[in-house]
Amino acid sequence: MSNRQADPAAVKILVAGGFGVGKTTLVGAVSEVTPLRTEEYMTQASVGVDDLAGIREKETTTVALDFGRITISDEVVVYLFGTPGQERFWFMWNDLVNGALGGVVIADTRRLETSFASIDFFESRGIPFVVAINCFHGHNTRTAEEIRTALDLDPQVPLLIGDVRQREFAKETLLALVDHLMSLPVPAG
To answer: What is residue 154's three-state secondary structure?
Structure first.
């Protein structure tokens, strides 16, 4: 009999949302390791391609993925994969989603329409998700019910409102996803 301890179970979570909503920030807020980021500076080539409305101060963009890790216990490790938000990089989502147990959609109430594609992506693949409304600098002009209606969310999809820069809110979001996953019926088979 071997004394070797079994490798921990890997849990993959995808973090998606529109351009500039806080995906990289959420991964960085909770990762126990320095996150892998594939960010590049925005250049003149993005003028007319990337909509900077509401995010004029944005200087970099994720071009492939963000990656972070959270060790839950000796038995479970969570791997976070942040998706690129710009439409020209959405082809990456199809590869990143493989093996994902669930997802987090980050949305900005100033630009809710940027989260529609992420919600549709998870719904069309039957991947459970939660929605985290990122209140930049505490700014939120909508109620939870108004947001839920605008996003056309099913009643069982958890909706959280906070600031993804805050580690506690980022952790709360991931815990809400775990609770949501645990509340779903176990597939037969």
So the answer is: coil
